[in-house]
Fold these 2 entries.
Entry 1:
Amino acid sequence: MRFLELFARRRARRTDELAEELRTHLELAAADRVARGESPTEAAANARREFGNSGLVLDISRDQWSGFGNWLERLGQDVRIALRVLRRTPGFSTVAILTIALGIGATTAIFSVVNATLLHPLPYPRAGQLVRIEDDLAGTGSRAVGMSTPEWRDLQRSGVFEAVSPAWFDDNNMTGPARAQRVGLLIVAPNYFAMLRVKPQIGATFDSADATPGFNGQAVISDGLWERAFGRDPAILGRFVQLDSDSYHIVGVMPRGFQAPSATRQERATEVWVAFGFSGAPLDQVSSQSRTPLFPGAFARIRDGLTLAEAQRRVDALAHALRRQFPVDYPAASGWRIRLVPLREHVVGDVRSPLLLLMAAVGLLLLIACANVANLLLARATARGREMAVRQAIGGSPSRLVRQLLTESVTLSSLGGLTGVALLLAGQRFLIRLVPAGVPMLSGISIDWMVLLFACVASAAAGIVFGLAPAMDVRRIDVTRMLKVEGRGATGTRQQKRTRRLLVVGELALSLVLMISAGLLVRSFQSLANAPLGFDARNVTIVHTRLPYPNDSTEDLYGTVGAEAPFVREVTRRAMAIPGVESAALGSGAAVPLDHPEQDQNALRVRFDGRPLDGQVPTVVTGSQVTPAYFHLLGLTLLRGRLFSDFDTDESPQVAVINQAMARAYWPGQDALGKRLKLSRRDTAWTTVVGIIADARTESLASPAIPLVYASLYQRQGKHLAIFLRGHFETAAMEKRIRNEVQTINPALPVFGAETLDDAISGSLAVRRFSMRVIELFAVTALLLASLGIYGVIAYTVSERTQEIGVRVALGAARADILRMILAQGAASSARAWRSG
Amino acid sequence: MSNSPPTSRIELLQGTLDFIVLQALRWGPCHGYGIAQLIRAQSNQALQVETGSLYPALQRLLRQRAVAAEWTVSENKRRIRVYRLTPKGREMLATERSKWEQLSRAIAGLMLPPAAEEP
């Protein structure tokens, strides 16, 4: 602005100089004439006559100045004229500005989400080098099956990466500062923070060279936890906390806003990081050479100068070598491979396609809005045809008029864009609340310069797009014809009419596309939401607790099934005693339908009796542990055999209940009852299938046919426990009630996350529901705009043809005939739109 | 404009005016009115430079840095703006001049055939 001001002042000074010079010229000429004998009055008049139009001379002299100044001045002029023209037709301007405001506002809103999630670099230095590493079994189609410690070491030594750090998320019970509470814990290698290249706000992170086996006793906490549990106590460093009854001291606090990179919302909300050597205590029973997957996956930074493709090629070669070296661990049939995923894709992969879909939809909406305004402009251009013809006749060059019209439309769109962005800013807080919490980097959504730039460009582009058609029409004006026409010469040319009808047809077609895609989304959503669940989700509330998993196994109160079972029985008994509770059951986290906490090791690697163990591809099956009452509580139907009973304990033979899909998939054509399988490597005992239940959509709303295996919680441990309660009571009060009961048994146990099963199910659909609702809204708006467009065009055609209609009526045409004629025209446009849509 | 031009008045070609103005300034710094007078006098009233052509030409030459302008006070105590040739202007003048000489020789050759062939 300062620059423009200087510029204007300089220009004004030069204009003054030029004007003075021209005055001097006149005076000198007059003086000469007086010297030649003319009278002073005569001389002055003659001199002025000879001089010509001094205003014009000044103007054309100034035209010689630098291009930018002229351009700027003409632009200013054009904008002034445009504003005047727009003010003259307030109705038209308001409608046009609001239409554009709607289009630009909606587009900018969606873009701000896209900008924050898909475009913003992740908040880590040189984030492009960061990757997620996952192991896949191409042979069985399983992805992200987990990684082992020797693989981690192989990757570290491969020379492809600067650093590789496993990441293993778990819930944890923190005691020490306050009453027992659940915290999100991420177990990482000591090089984790060095790999991300992030620094703590106070204290330090782990020493990346630390090679201590087991845990090194250090913990780094998040800013949120510092605030929540320690009241931002500056003396936090060195303080001890109990995590699952193991003692850790806090060495650093991460900055506000730092999030662990992750695909899951829980892991992004990590509050405590601890460093682990991924061998040694508490994994003493696990050989550090075992290649059985231990943790879910790892993060890594690719070395400088290596591209992702090159890194993947070298990792492929490594995997190939490992498959040959360890054929038992990586049987050829399993198709084991290591996959590098760019970190951004890992983090935002789930929301990319819905967001791009929304962006496309809102782009269509903006196009429709543009078409609408173009139509309005065209209609007005017809009315202004005479003005344009007159301006051309008195010397306005067509190119100047085109520029004038374009300036008008861009001014219009800028005003619309401004209004749109203003509305967006006003409604920002409200709108952000509508975005489902599952979207990563939600906190990063803001109206920043990138978004504003987008709004500016979109407005300008919109202005040019909808201004082009009417502006180009100016070039086609036949000045003579236009001026000769008597009276208001405002009958649109045939071409104008065609353009207008074409625009409306296009507009309708686009809105149909939107309607159809919205319809499809709604259909697929409804088929998901209304699918028969196969279980009864009504009046079921779930509350979570978690048993500690101390590194020192002698500290573990619940180290064995035998030690855990009394706790489980006691919780069930106490829950049943609460008024309003009709039945109660416990299960592992994986037993909660449709809402699976990531940390549960719910993917069991199952081996079947009667098939060779060596070289057999371990089959990954989703499994959970439940108490006997679980099936009845959820209304799952037993088809054959029996369910668990209280007499299935650690002293009786191991039993399992499976679903139909499991029976069909692994014992096709046979009776699955009585068949034996091993549920994990450590279990040496065979587990016998004793019951088959009907398939239900407990794993995925999309499909009921996912193989599932259930073990008894009295025979197989679960650390993360979900307490299922059926009955009529208030959910929030119930969490308190259950907390009291659980903490009466053991005050160190956290109780959290009470939720009704209905809410959990609808929560799992949040992102889908959001994009469906938004597209629905767009589609309705688009249809509204398109109908407005059709109305406008027909209204104009009719008003244009008033005279013709008058003649027709005079000649005896009935009202009905006229109406039929007009409706036929409208219907023809719509029909064409249907075809092209 | 309104005063009828003498019959011998010549329409100036686009671009020629700049050359003529530079040529006029060869005699020394001069103000706008002076330049117009000079051109008229030196062409024996044949060339009348309109102010609507002269001042745009001067602004154009200023922008090209072929001339420089400064405000001074004339002998009869009038604030005037005088223009003078810059080195760059002299250079332009020289090239224009040689181009013009070539052109005029060529045209002269076409227009004035050898006397022998005249009847």
Entry 2:
Amino acid sequence: MKDVVLSAEESAAIGSWTAESQGLALEILGKYPKKRSAVMPLLYVSMIENGYVTNEGMKAVSILTGLTAAQVQAVASFYSMYKREELGDYLVSVCTSISCFLLGADDVLAAIEDESGVPDGETGAAGKFSVEHVECNGACGGAPVVLVNYEMIEGVTPDKGRELVKWLRDGGPDVVSTEEMQQLFGGERAFDWGIKELEGAFLPIPAFGPYGSAKGAS
Amino acid sequence: MADLVTITIDGVEMQAPAGEVLIKVAEDNGNYIPRFCWHPRMKPAGLCRMCLVEVVGPRGRALVPSCTTKINDGMVVDTQSAVVKKAQEGVLEFLLINHPLDCPVCDKGGECPLQDHTVAYGPGESRFVEEKRHYPKPIPISELVLLDRERCILCARCTRFCEEISGDPLIEFRDRGNAVQVITFPDEPFTSYFSGNTVQICPVGALTAAPYRFKARPWDLEAVESVSMVDAFGSKVSVQSSQNTLVRIDGIDNEATNQGWLSDKDRFIFEAIHSEHRLTVPLIRKDGELVEATWGEALEVAADKLASYPGAAVAGLGGANGTNEEAFAFGKFLRTIVVTPHIDAQLDDGLDPHFLVGVTPRATVPDLETAKTILLWAGDLKEELPVLYLRVRRAAAELGANLIVVHPRRTGLDDVASHKIRYRPGTGPDVLRELIAGDGEYAAARAALDEGPVIAIVGRTGLSEDPRLAEAVAAFARDLPDGKIMPLAHRANVIGALDMGLAPTLLPGRVSESTAHETLEAEWGPLPEGLGRNATSILEGLRDGDLKALVMVGSDPVRDHPEPTLAAASLEAADFVVAFDHFLNDSSAMADVVFPVQGFAEVEGTVTNIEGRVQKVNRLVPGPGQTKPTWSALDDLARRMGGDLGATSAAALAKEIATVAPAYHGVTWDSLDWGAGREGMLVPVEGGIQHLEYIPVDGNLVSVEAHHGLHLGRVLYDDGVRTRMSPSLAPLMPTAQVFLNAADAVELGLNPGDDAVVRSESGSVTLPVTIDNSLGSGAVYVQANLAETRELGAAVTVVVAAGGDA
Amino acid sequence: MKILTERMDAHRTDSHTIERYEATGGYSALRKGMLDIGAEAIAAEVKASNIRGRGGANFPAGVKWGFLAPAKPAYLVINGDESEPGTFKDRQLLERDPHQLIEGVILTAFALGINHAFIYIRGEYPKPARRTQHAVDEAYQKGYVGKNILDTGFDLDITVHLGGGAYICGEESALLNSLEGRRGEPRLKPPFPAVAGLYAKPTIVNNVETISNVPWIVNNGGIAYASIGPDTSAGTRMVSISGHINKPGNYEIVMGMTWRELIFELGGGIPNGHELKAWIPGGSSAPWFVPDEHLDTPVTIDDVGKHGSMLGSGAVIVMDDSTDLVAAAHRMVRFYSHESCGQCTPCREGTTWLERIFNRILSGQGRMADIDLLLDVCDGISPGLTWPPAMTTICPLGPSATAPVISLMRYFRDEVEARINEEVTVG
């Protein structure tokens, strides 16, 4: 892990970022032998700043990593989690791959679409929700699986899906955590999770240390 | 050289170097394997899957892409099996399911690999009944290139070219899977200087060039091989016309030079040839105005006036934009008809002529393939000699050479440089001394220079730099391990012109005036005695009245001389000026007689590039109106003056060159066209020219420390007349600006975009400020050869101040 | 016999903490490996263990290590991009026992002379990534990672990297491209990662489960590991059981039991009184097994391979007699179409075409000719429809998409025909 000093151009590129995000950028750049490797984590930081992957965000990342903006766009657009459009406060992702499908995921998705009024692939309800179906999320033993801002809930039924939407709509926490939601809306899990940890996501970005938006829940 | 191994393809045994890719070995042996993504000048990508073949091994048959499979001894290959044919059919069916099949209106139709392969290897029909992919089409992705994503087969040739070859990845894949498309970033167009190459290598009509779009059908085209005359690199081209009009220039793969690539200026400059502003009839000045005249009238005026002066009162400038044969005729005209020694093809914007054509040991472009270390102390190659930039980039990025770039600011090659040395203009001599000493910050670069073979590419980093610095760098570099020198010249055929004796101190064939004077007199009769003036001295002579008349051949000193104000004053003061040109440029517009002449693609002849490589240019279209070849017009003028150039044709002149110009003995059109000279013939350096007097490093070459040191650097799209007359290129000329680093700007109270006044001894210009932190403190960069910056002249130091009404 | 899951089963709340890990023998293998037996011996034990990679390709890990080229720096990359439908074992290992992996990482890096390791975790796994990062931080604090580990002079940095959502990054060369900040497109091979991997330097890429076994192997010896289970399927392995099954979840098993035992005893059989119709023995890329032919086939790498499928990532997906298999096959094909990187023509165009033909059949627009068309499109991606699959593509993603189609047509063609006919009568 090395210390990173930014050039004037690089500093200017993220001059509008919060001090916290600028610090994250430095930390991330220090983790890799070559700065191009920092593209993906920096894109997450740009999403913290802008809510989604914006052209400005990609340009800033291109300057930090010595790439052209077209190269950053090539990377960002390859991966499904770098969203290119404004998202709701809660990104509700319903797994509809094979194991979840076998156990009724399509019905869960339909219930969530219906309850939220937001069709698959769209953002609605005044910016509250984005709803999407996603491919396998690696919780097949706890199918069907729903993620809210990438925080996972296993064993979700259509009715629980509706309750989840209501809960998010009628308030909803600043930080969503897999532990809390599993307790409220989940069913059978694929395996024991161990002691309860109140970390979670405050944005539709995976809540992981320097890359994302992990914060302790209140 | 890799060992040869024996492999069998379709029952035919053949030998090829171990490690070569199968697709190339097969093709070299007459077995063409269909392909889309593979290109011989790029790394294999293996993604179109069209070139699948079966390799028969002890464990059975395996289907492999022939573009990524390296051959090994005893390999047995089947390119015709049922499995291969099924795979080829499958790939073509897959490619066609989303292809729009709009061949009748596609530029590529008729020369399209997708069409051709479909006929030869494709299925008879498609079973795809779903809706095809749709995109808005075509979309312009730059001023020059349009993109049709529906036609695109995603072979990535274009994106790989940009990343691998030209180093400006402005187009890239976007999205994933079936949604993948080639595209730019939203507000960053495909402004590469090399974008046209992607059009040429696109295997479908996805990328098309605005200048060619809908101009012709491929089967209507006529074509000749030729050499680009945009710069002194000598890229091989295919010039193509339809109905006597040039419509396209493509690169031809000459291993020794361009390896198939061109700059966009090489490719699209042809538009100027058919410009409505071309000169088509002779002009003579009457009552202060240039008016149309007959050839007879114009020749009479010119002949009478030129004959009225003592020969030594007449001078000649130019000849560097035409062929060797034209330059030779120009020199012979001046030396034997006018009888003047005042001749210069350069405009004091280059290097000493003896150094340019005489320095040894001399590096060739192919030497870059084996160089271990390259010292580049010259102008920004991307701007000045873009295809040489590609070759140096390849040496550094692909072949692993150490590249040391010494320049006042960032250059196009900095990204692949192992060492970058930036200095304030004027302090080059000190930097050289420090580099030679190898102390401190230059230690690593100096150490790299001990790894040979070393090639030093030397030239003037900018027009205000002392040309002797390049010689001093060369003097240092040629003593390095296996050190070789590549001196740079810029203008199209300037080396050829010098080789034809268009310098006061040179006679045709790379010989000095002093040593070859008598030999040439034996052929040509009496020659003027004494050494002539160079360009600056000629202009001064005209201004001061020591010289009376000037003959210009394709020369524009008012634009190109580092001191344009001197040039303008000189032409104004001259008693009589004759110009042979394609256009009325800033200088020929001041002439008394102007002869309209033919140029690139209209004449045949030879040109000589920076290496001394002679190549043939060919004729494809007639010149407009009453234009004549320059040699013919000069011969007409000579006859009017009672002489004779003995020039019945360009070919006849070429034969005379081969006789009287020592270095050109044996250079024949036959050989260049059909013989061993197809990749060009290198003319020797040794054998006539005297040794060079290098500037000693500790001598009188001193640094100038004053603020601000001016870097007057060339740009590719300068406001030369041909750029201005090419509708597609003219909009690409950059806005004139003054570049400063941020701290200097703050000190001067300047913000980006503010107007700043830049003052030199010659004059002052007002330019908007741009921050460029690659410039050191006290350094200022201004683009050379733009109308807005011309008044500045080639000052070493300038004063920069906030602009405004004051 | 439990190797990987013993601690987490015994300590259901805190098996992931360093306190519990150390209290239950954790990091003892590290001391043994680094201080007692040394780098060469670690590599020798792993080779002797015969452990085969648990990511899906089942390549012997010790042999893979042997391919590492001598150039420096070299890198170790842990593949935690677990994305094969049906698979969720690495998630459990990362969440419940990250130190077991980290100890394996340190031992592996030490054995191979590597000073920087990366743990690449799929983007949709923030919780496993948090737990892993936390454990890495603890290991740094304890001096197991960082400078001069255990005073041996050996330095190691571990970077936890989160993916961005792309199944293809589970393919090791695509993962390396992704880790370099590129599109996750598989690379041409050769060169293999062991010669030119991350940043074109020699790189070992191993799966989470594979490396989690290394501490046990070092502590107990390679021979002990090799003696567990059948010869060519040595050791224990994690299987993830999902779908129509009474007891879904991850199970650490010794290979060699029959599928009947695995589904009906371990997995508790089919729920709600339904019958078993088909199952997928190794992730959705694996051809299906059916009760009539495969229930008594042993669960070993070789036996499954001999019967035309693969144990792959160890993901068993069970489908009962209520399953609409045309829809199920479509769902799997859709996955590969969505996840195709788009480089190779046959995969980019072929997987999407397959999906669209299925869409047509499911929406009542199917034609009988579509059955042959589906198989012929598969043939264009995987010539001859053989097992193991031939490929017209760079990586196996495209051919994976053909597995459900071929299986459907092989065992349940009548259901497809009925589907097409039924919809035709209705329409």
